TrEMBL record:
Segments forming a coiled coil: none
Entry's localization field: Endomembrane system; Golgi apparatus membrane; Membrane
Keywords (A to Z) from UniProt: Glycoprotein, Golgi apparatus, Membrane, Methyltransferase, Signal-anchor, Transferase, Transmembrane, Transmembrane helix
One Gene Ontology term from the biological process aspect of the record: methylation
TM helices/strands, residue ranges: 12-32
Database matches in Pfam families: Methyltransf_29
EC number(s) stated in the UniProt entry for this protein: 2.1.1.-
Gene that specifies this protein: LOC100383457
Organism in which the protein naturally occurs: Zea mays
Protein name from the UniProt record: Methyltransferase
Topology of the protein relative to the lipid bilayer: Single-pass type II membrane protein; Single-pass membrane protein
Signal sequence, start to end: none
Presence of keyword Transmembrane: yes
Length: 611
């Protein structure tokens, strides 16, 4: 027993000595590293330097996740660098490509609609910027001037010289604000409209300009705080939509043809056509019925140019009085069928208002081909054929009630609870969740601004949100310096685009497996929230990222929120596309599974790739 007691004492003493020794060693090691003499700081500084993004110098954090500690083979596959496309693809628009368009029928402008390439014809290369490309002028100077090198097409300066669309002066294009129907300038034209329409009172916030030219009307309506969605086809009037976006004005490539416009019903306060060459009197009034679908109750439709004012201008239009008279009679007839009320016709401009509800004016049946539409879904419009029918409005209790709810004037409209939320017509959303969403995105945007301090300086004018939800990202950024194209994916579980418009914002539906209806290099910043998780089993990440690269300007910025395993895949592809990237923690901390990928597209042009 004495021997065992001695051995136990010896063992205990040895344990105490070992523990004391280890504690002393780690204490001294920690003090050495803290003093700066150790290598830990040098390693950390080297990592920080390697991951620093030159264009965004304020990035000062590291991600706590990397490919090495992720499950499966998330980061193991190698991505070969993408090569530049040939210089001939500088202005490539995949779904409006001219050669493919000419193989489709010309009836109802079908050949000018979207016709996307099959997978075997897709380009898996990077669209180059033209030689000499420079950053656009900042707003508001950009409204009036565009660098020639960015859109090197002079045809409109010749074709529309008398109409004051655009002039070529030295190395820039100048936009004096004229249009086919308002050669003296959009400002005077808007004054005429404002004598009838309450444009300056905030009651008209969202407008649709059909056949917009270079979007001078939309550009000058911004002075009245009116946000206009302008569209025109990619046709013989070369680059008109490209000019609009280069000026910093919302626009997309589109046409009123055979398929429905990519918007839900009841979203625009005003629709406008100024000599837009749309055959309003044809197709049993189908085009006017489509305008009726997207106009809000009480909204305004403006038509200027032929046939309005035919008694005075018929000689200049080189058409007979009888032809023009019959065309206007048909337009007036369809307007009556739709229960529109004409409120003005003066100086070649006619203005109608849409009915407040169906109770105030029951649908007339004079048109044998045009009854009520069978509205199974208000948002089911993507690639759906336009119909000769009248879209019914939500039910009301009295003839004075606005169908779908009365909206606040802007800017109160931006954060007022939208009627589609209060009446429960958007599944899964309530007043409480709407307020929570606003607060959440205020927090997100505040965190973005800490990282990219250029976000609200006017450096980024044209911004796209690829999965806009309730539009709270755009609402948090609202400023005269920026506008946001709020996109709702066609595969989203719930359509919220109607809510976005009720907030006084604009946007459209789109399927991100296809090319967007815009020219290359038309957006300064692209924001993506859960897009890649949403499309994970729908199409290749490369397809989406290459499209993002196509529509983003050189030195433009990207912000992608998604799950970390998804983002690591995305980052590997992005690095193969000449993007500078930085994977960052969620502002809530490193243990939140959602992360943010910040990226900047590097500057390069066709000139540099060919040398």
């Amino acid at each position: 027993m004495a021997r065992n007691l001695t051995e136990n004492r010896t063992r205990n003493t040895l344990i105490v000595i070992v523990v004391f020794g280890l504690c002393s060693f780690f204490y001294l090691l920690g003090a050495w590293q803290k003093s700066g003499s150790g290598g830990g700081d040098r390693i950390q500084n080297w990592v920080n330097e390697q991951t620093k993004c030159a264009q965004l110098p304020n990035l000062s954090f590291e991600t706590h996740h990397s490919a090495s500690n992720l499950p499966n083979d998330t980061g193991s596959s190698k991505i070969e660098p993408f090569k530049p496309c040939d210089e001939q693809y500088t202005d490539y628009t995949p779904c409006e490509e001219q050669k493919r368009a000419m193989t489709f029928p010309r009836d109802n402008m079908i050949y000018r609609e979207r016709h996307c390439p099959p997978d075997k014809e897709k380009l898996y290369c990077l669209i180059p910027a033209p030689k000499g490309y420079v950053a656009p002028f900042r707003w508001p100077k950009g409204r009036d001037f565009v660098p020639y090198a960015n859109v090197p097409h002079k045809s409109l300066t010749v074709e529309k010289a008398i109409q004051n669309w655009v002039h070529y002066e030295g190395n820039v294009f100048r936009f004096p604000g004229g249009g086919t129907q308002f050669p003296q300038g959009a400002d005077k034209y808007i004054e005429q409209l404002a004598s009838v329409i309450p444009i300056a009172e905030g009651k008209v916030r969202t407008a649709l300009d059909t056949g917009c030219g270079v979007a001078s009307l939309g550009a000058y309506l911004l002075n009245k705080n009116v946000l206009t969605m302008s569209f025109a086809p990619r046709d013989n009037h070369e680059a008109q939509v490209q000019f609009a976006l280069e000026r910093g004005v919302p626009a997309y490539i589109g046409v009123l043809g055979s398929i429905k416009l990519p918007f839900p019903s009841r979203v625009f306060d005003m629709a406008h056509c100024s000599r837009c060459l749309i055959p309003w009197s044809g197709n049993d009034g189908m085009y006017m019925m489509e305008v009726d679908r997207v106009l809000r109750p009480g909204g305004f439709w403006v038509l200027s140019g032929p046939p309005i004012g035919w008694k005075i201008h018929y000689k200049g239009w080189q058409r007979s009085k009888e032809d023009l008279r019959n065309e206007q009679r048909k337009i007036e007839h369809f307007a009556q069928l739709l229960c529109w009320k004409k409120v003005s016709e003066k100086d070649g401009i006619a203005i109608w208002t849409k009915r407040l509800n169906d109770k105030s004016c029951s649908m007339k049946q004079d048109n044998p081909n045009g009854g009520k539409c069978d509205l199974t879904s208000d948002s089911d419009v993507w690639y759906k054929k336009m119909e000769v029918c009248m879209t019914p409005l939500p039910e009301v209790n009295s003839v004075d009630e606005v169908a779908g709810g009365q909206l606040e004037p802007f800017p109160k409209r931006l954060y007022a609870v939208p009627p589609r939320i209060t009446d429960g017509s958007v599944p899964g959303f309530s007043v409480e969740s709407y307020e929570e969403d606003n607060n959440l995105w205020r927090k997100h945007v505040k965190a973005y601004k800490k990282i990219n301090n250029l976000l609200d300086t006017g450096r980024y004018r044209n911004i796209m949100d690829m999965n806009a939800g309730l539009g709270s990202f755009a609402a948090a950024l609202e400023s005269p310096k920026v506008w946001v194209m709020n996109v709702i994916p066609t595969i989203a579980n719930t359509s919220t685009l109607g809510v976005i418009y009720e907030r006084g914002l604009i946007g459209m539906y789109h399927d991100w497996c296809e090319g967007f209806s815009t020219y290359p290099r038309t957006y300064d910043l692209i924001h993506s929230n859960d897009i890649f998780s949403l499309y994970q089993n729908k199409c290749q990440f490369e397809d989406i990222l290459l499209e993002m690269d196509r529509i983003l300007r050189p030195e433009g910025a990207i912000i992608i929120r998604d799950k970390v395993d998804v983002l690591v895949k995305v980052e590997k592809i992005a690095n193969a596309m000449r993007w500078k990237t930085r994977l960052a923690d969620h502002e809530g901390g490193p243990h939140v599974p959602e992360k943010i990928l910040f990226a900047v597209k590097q500057y390069w042009t066709a000139e540099k790739t060919s040398s």
